[in-house]
Structure formats: C-alpha cells, structure tokens
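Section 3.1 - Work completed
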Amino acid sequence: MWTPDELGGAECLSSLADGASLELCRSELLNPTIDMTGDGVFDSGRMVEGDTVFLATDRTGDGFADTVTRIGPDGTYEVWQVSESAASGTAQWRLDDGGLLA
C-alpha cells in the first residue's frame, strides 16, 4: 500500500525495469515528508508495499521523483535514477546501485 498523501502515481515503482521510459512511471511528490539532501527542503516521500519500502526523491525540484530506492524485506536494496539515453535522447529509469544492507 502506498501513502497517497506523499506520492502520486507510485503504483509503478515496484515494477521498475532498466531502460523503462519515464513516461511509463512518473511518480509525483504530493506532500514530501523527508529531507534527503540536507538543505532544509522536504524532497522525498515514502511508500510501503507489502514488506518492501520505497523512498522517492526529487533531486531536480520539478515535483517528480527522479531517484527511487527500494529496500526489500531480505535487506537487499536497489537505487534507480532517471537518466537521459545517449542513443535516443529520452529520459529512462536506470538501475544505478544495489546490494545488501549490512
């Protein structure tokens, strides 16, 4: 279940795939409650789906998530970033980092 007061259109976050078009998954931060950058501005919202936690961050200030961190119940994590494809020039989700939390 996601918290609609923080994120809009977040249903797609659990199925992000490398190279997925930004048009297919664009989560809006409706009421961010977390300051991930430390600048005093709330720029992130959370969503819980089953045993998985998602943290969506707007690093560009346009009101939409461009970084998504997924933390699974087994301690695994993935960090997804929006980046521009060099080949097509379109914005896509890319798996930027992942691993196991210690």
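Second construct:
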Amino acid sequence: MAEGVGSLAKDIRAAITGPEMTAEQKAQIEMQLLVMESAAAKAAADFDAAQMQGQVDLNKIEAGSDSIFKSGWRPAVGWICVAGLTLTFLVKPLLPWICQVGALMVGRESIVPPIPEIPMNDLLILLSGLLGLGTMRSVEKIKGTR
C-alpha cells in the first residue's frame, strides 16, 4: 500500500511539473542561467560606464562654460571663505590698531566702530568641506582614477 501511495505521488508530481530531468539537462539549464547572469552583469556594467561617461562629459561642458553660475560656484565659495578668513584674522584685529596709530600720528582721537562678527563655525565647516573635496580629487588624479 505504501509503495502504491509513493508511486501515485510521483505520478502526480510528474503530471504537474513534467518528467524528471537528467543530470545533463540540469547542467545545460545551469549553464544557460550562468550565461544569462553574465550578460545581465555586463549590461549593467556597460550602463554604469555610459552613465559615468555622460556625467564626465557634462562636467566638462559646465566647467568650460562662461556662465558664472555653472563654472564659478566652487571658486566663488572659495573666495567667500578667503574673504571671511581675511576679515576675521587680519582686518578685524589690525584695522582698529592702524586707525588709532594713524590718529595719534596726526594728533586726533579716533573712534573705530566695531567690525561685524562673521560666523566662523559655519565658515570653517564650509572651508573644511571644500578642502576635503579638493584633497579627495587630488588623490583620485594621482591614482589615475576618474
């Protein structure tokens, strides 16, 4: 009886899924799957490479643009940082002293209004980011990567 039930179960499975495959058929299907996976991976890599090349081409066009809004934002941010650092570390401490020395030399009293504060925390965060990105790009160029 048990043998008959087992045979019946095998017959039902064969009717639903088809006849059992040989080892050669399984190997052939596995080989086809590997070929398909390889083709899909190559297509994905080709797509990624084309997308990166498109971005590189776009960056070249934008960098060569005369528009200050496309090619000038990094230099502009850099100059803002330079101006802020110059004002904070050179002009602000030295200007009142220079004005007072000049006034003493001509015999007048000078009153120098306070120079506005620049939020150095924000400025240094911005400058650190720019310097970090610049360093990262320099390392990429040295290594010869994109």
